[in-house]
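Hello Y.,

Per our agreement to keep a running log of every chain we model this quarter, I'm adding this entry. I've kept the format consistent with earlier entries: sequence first, then predicted structure.
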Amino acid sequence: MIEKIKALCVKYRELIIYILVGGLTTAVSWGCKFLCGALFYPGVSIPTLTQTTVLNVVENLSGIFFAYFPNRKWVFQSRDPRIFREFLSFVTSRLGTWGLSYVLNVLLTNVLHIEYHITTILVSVVVVIGNYVISKFFVFRKKEQKG
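Predicted structure for the entry above:
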């Protein structure tokens, strides 16, 4: 039984580490968002469009800057020497999912009037999945070995 668990951990290492790093990234970005909300918009559960925008900017920028290095080192184990180019690719991809995040946040919070803590959870699930797919296949893709 233990051997089966070990084999599954080896087989799904990347996904397991991504979930852990994603959890840390989510904690950082949500922490920054909710702290900003508590400091600048105390008592607000359905923010205005401007407040939603500010909170979304804080959440995503903190998540983007936190996530790159753990994703590079631990999740995808990138050895690409062109770190700046890879970082720009990472940031660009995250800006794309940030756009999706923003649209979904505005739709759910400001149009459908769903409380922003709940909206944050729903949107994060969609964004985490999108970020994994984009990072795996476009940002940190393994270069094929020439034999």
